[in-house]
Amino acid sequence: MFASIRSRLIVIALLVIGSIYFLFPRTVSLRERGANGVMRDTTVTRVPLKRGLDLQGGMHLALELDQSKQVSADPKRDLDLALTVLRKRIDEFGVEEPLVQKAGDDRIVVELAGITEPARAKAIVQRSAFLEFRITNKTNALEKSLPAMDRVLRGLGVKAEAAPGAGKPSAVEQLLGGDSAKKTAAAKPADSAKAAPDSAAADTTPVPGGVLSGLIQEAGAVAGTATPGEYAVPETAFPRVDSLINIPAVTRQLPRGVVLRWSAAPTSIGVQQYRLLYALDDRPIVTGSNLEDAGAQLDQLTNGPIVTFQLDRAGGRKFGDETGRHVGDYMAILLDGRVQGRPPVIQSRISRNGQITLGNKSLQEAQDLALTLKAGALPIPLKIVEERQVGASLGSDSIRKGVTAGVVGTAMVILIMLVFYRLSGVLAVAALALYILFTLGGLSMIEATLTLPGLAGIVLSVGIAVDANVLIFERIREELVHGKTVRLAVDEGFKHAMNAIIDSNVSTVLTALFLFQFGTGPVKGFAVTLIMGIVASMITAVFVTRTFFMIWLQRRPAMTTLSI
Amino acid sequence: MLRLFANAQYDFIAFRTRAYAVTALFIIPGLVWLMVYGLNYSIEFTGGTLVQVQSKAPADVGALRAGLDRQGLHGAEIQSFGGANEFVVRARVAKPGTDANDTQATGDAVNQALTSVLGAGTFTIERTEAVGPKVGGELRSKAFLAIFLSFFAVLAYLAYRFEWRFGLAAVLATVHDIVATIAFIGMLRLEVSLTVVAAVLSMVGYSLNDTIIIFDRVRENLKKHKKDSFEQILNRSINETLPRSVLTHGTSLASLLALSIFGGEVIRPFALVMFFGVFTGTFSSIYIASPVLMAIEKRWPGQFARGHLATGPAAAPATGGGRKTAPVA
Predict the structure, then answer these.
(1) Where does the pLDDT of residue B101 fall: very low under 50, low under 70, confident under 90, or very high at 90 and above?
(2) A385 HSE (CA, 13 A, CB side)
(3) Does A504 contact B126 at a Cβ distance shorter than 8 Å?
(4) CATH number of this structure's domain B48-131
(5) Is some CB atom of chain B closer than 8 A to the CB atom of A474?
(6) What is the C-alpha to C-alpha distance for residues B177 and B276, in angstroms, rounded to an integer?
(7) pLDDT digit string (tens) for B282-317?
(8) In chain A, N or C terminus with fewer CB closer than 10 Å?
(9) Does the CB of B104 have a partner CB in chain A at under 8 Å?
(10) What residues of chain B lie within 8 A of the CB of A408, using their CB?
(11) Which of B95-109, B179-193, B276-290 has the lowest mean pLDDT?
């Protein structure tokens, strides 16, 4: 096969043309979200070699179902559902070539290249965005249950005296809000002093030292304006009350059909920070699954951001019926189980359109919320199990360093080859140039992602790639020493070196395959460049260098000494 | 022509016991060191948070550490990374079973500590990594599995291409390389990251490559020089491949040198491990793989070696005059 020089040259030419074709800068169109939040198409011209997140900057997230609060009945289905939802959200987020895929049975991997606001991206990916509307309870269910709840707690050995330690923040919160611990300490005396007389006054059947009755008060008593089913808890006591009311034995004391939900953010009443607690119907009148469209805008009255939404036909009908029946009642809007803003009174039948007031959030956040609402809710919240994030400047810095190392390394290798093998060395260097071209072209062809370790792999492989040529050249030298003619020595040299080249390369490919199998992004990239490098080095050493020698020998048929 | 070690006739095999001593002197203290201090796993394997920061002015490490302590991050490592203005903060998750949400809180805490110590806007976070311990544990077992399985694949391939004796000798030499490399990593206190595991696996490939080149020559010489003893065959093969070894290792080392000088902090551990791998790979091909092959062939003679063992190693070094100091690499 390819016996004649002409056919060999044609093959080499095709390989070169192919590599150049795959490396030729081309114009691609991108869909991005502009500064004004509108999607737009832009075009850029660049070399079509995909750069990994570590080279171009970006974010890699691995997510799992977070079953700590809510257990999934069918994790496999929920994960698939989450995958679809995430795809929609990321699509709307507007990142160039995002990757959202399943990894293994229980994990989703999200890769966002070139993003500049990682915190936003994380929020969008993690937010469940479960929207629901519930009517607030107007039967004073919580007040009536409080004494019973306190009795249960007393039975469990929880005492009100522990209240000063009340708002003991969890470790995470201590990390997050450095000064919140201090605030707790300062607020404590005032709290307990204030809470004690209140509880005595409000309770119908007071339990002496009742823990919850000491901390939960009717919001009307504190704020002045009363919404049925609304209660206030000092912000400092919020974590403690939250953990107490979630004890199953305590929750059971509530009448059937009533659930408790917190407000999303603390409210300032006077000088005090309060967290509002709501008693709500356990059955939502409508949920986000009926949502058709959502958008963000600024409220004309308050100039605060709001999210407007539109329900689908079925949802609209249900919403209309329910709100019609509940005129004069208050409706809480819940997002991910937290009440957003204070529940508005239902003044008349509402059909398909509504809005969520977000308080002191930015328009950006409102836009992100609208985006997640539109893409749908996650069946189960997701937790981030792995996160990697590289800034764009570090990425380009890495490329520059990798290229410098590559250029210097290649120059040294070329020098060594020329010093040792003289004219034959020139052939080897030409083959090395083709080797680099083929490797990069091949990587571009299979759409491999070039990572930082991959870049190192290429630099290293330049040093190793000449091994095949060295093997052949040394073999030719040996044959020449044994007194063979130039032509015969070249033939024999190639023939005998072959076994060693194949065996050693196959074993390297084998280890690279295992590397590919186990590695994550960057390491996979390394394995791919290693394999591609070995393939290209075999082609250049065995085929290209051979052809060069054939041409050389044909032009100088009478050559008796070889410059090797 | 310029030839290094052309027609070299060193008696490598005769030096094997001394070579064993050399490698034992390196490996044993290295492993003892490891047992005392343990491997320095990166957060990819232990779980935890890494934040790489570039600040406008050189950062005061003491003040930073105090700031991190104030955030409750005791024992976080602060390391300069390439320059005075660039450093890395590593915080490991202490409790197993916690997930990355905690590591995220850690990341936020690092951010707050930096803001309070350096001042907002005077630093940029260039890289963050947060890995939950579960993921870390998975990665670790996957890495070991990959190294282990690649042994079997190579053993099978060599058994197919040569015969099992060669394969076993090559794999044993590789085991030596890995142990020596781990000792090296331990002594330099290099951080064992995914990239370093990748370097170890590439080193395995490189070392095998080298062993195979010699074995290929052994196979050839066994057929060609029927009268030589096995020891002579080994010596002849090693000597004949010596010029190739010197050149290839030279070009590889040149590339690695360029990588470790210019490639940046992330790549440097990779380059260092590979750099060491080139030496240990060469050493083990000559002093582990070849003598082990000889031992195996003596105990269970294969068809290639049968005639050669009959003459026995007592047939004296035919090459003569080779008892000079053998170059190790």
Answers:
(1) low
(2) 22
(3) no
(4) 3.30.70.3400
(5) yes
(6) 10
(7) 999 999 999 999 999 888 887 666 666 554 444 444
(8) N
(9) yes
(10) 258, 261-262
(11) B95-109
Look at domain A58-128+378-390 and name its CATH class.
alpha beta
∠ CA A84-A86-A91, nearest 5°, is 100
How many residue contacts between A and B have a Cβ separation below 8 Å? 257
Nearest to B267 by CA among B198, B207, B205, B187: B198
CATH architecture assigned to B13-41+136-315: Up-down Bundle (1.20)
pLDDT for the residue A71: 78
Within chain B, all domains assigned CATH 3.30.70.3400 are found at: 48-131
What is the pLDDT averaged over residues A436-457? Answer: 89
* Per-residue pLDDT tens digits for A523-535: 788 888 888 988 8
Report the largest interatomic distance among the alpha carbons of chain A, rounded to a whole angstrom: 118
* Interface residue A121 vs chain B (CB under 8 A): no
Domain spanning A5-22+391-555, CATH class: mainly alpha
Of A172, A388, A518, the CB nearest to B129: A388
The alpha carbon of residue A478 is apart from the nearest alpha carbon of chain B, in Å, by 9
Contact B264 A401 (CB under 8 A): yes
pLDDT for position A193: 40
User: Which residues in chain B are closer than 8 Å to A386, comparing Cβ atoms?
Assistant: 100, 130-132, 135
Q: How confident is the model at residue A417 (pLDDT cuts 50, 70, 90)?
A: very high
Q: What is the pLDDT of residues A161-217, one digit of tens each?
A: 444 444 444 444 434 433 443 444 444 444 444 444 444 334 445 555 677 888 888
Give the neighbor-by-neighbor strand order of the sheet with A305-311. Answer: A291-298, A305-311, A353-357
pLDDT tens digits for A343-359? 888 888 887 888 887 76
Residue A520: its pLDDT value, please? Answer: 65
Query: Model confidence over B127-148: pLDDT tens digits?
Result: 888 888 788 888 888 888 887 8
In this prediction, residue A453 has a pLDDT band, given cuts at 50, 70 and 90, of confident
Domain limits of chain A? 5-22+391-555, 58-128+378-390, 133-360
Give the rounded distance of the alpha carbon of B143 from its chain centre: 14
CB A511 within 8 A of CB B204: yes
Range with the poorest average pLDDT among A158-167, A534-543, B270-279: A158-167
Chain B residues 270-299 with a CB less than 8 Å from chain A:
270-271, 274
Residue to substitute from B1, B54, B217, interface A, most A β-carbons within 10 A: B1
Tell me how far CA of residue A21 lies from CA of A74, A434, A442, A448, in angstroms: 48, 14, 11, 16
Nearest chain B CA: its distance from A85 CA (Å): 21
What six digits make up the tokens of B313?
Answer: 């190693």
Is the ipTM higher than 0.85? The answer is no
Report the alpha-carbon distance of residue B7 to residue B235 in Å, rounded.
12
In chain A, the percentage of residues whose pLDDT exceeds 90 is 11
Please tell me which of the candidates B101, B116, B208 has its beta carbon nearest to residue A383.
B101
CA distance B156 to B149: 11
Mean pLDDT within A40-68: 82
With an 8 Å Cβ cutoff, is A419 touching chain B? yes
- Half-sphere exposure at residue B9, Cβ-oriented, CA atoms within 13 angstroms: 8
Fold matches, A5-22+391-555 and A58-128+378-390: no
Report B:16-55 residues touching A (Cβ under 8 A): 52
* Min Cα separation B291/chain A (Å): 20
Residues 6+ apart with CB under 8 A from B237: B214, B215, B217, B218, B220, B221, B290
Interface touch A474/B247, C-beta < 8 Å: yes
B210 contacts in chain A (CB < 8 Å): 504
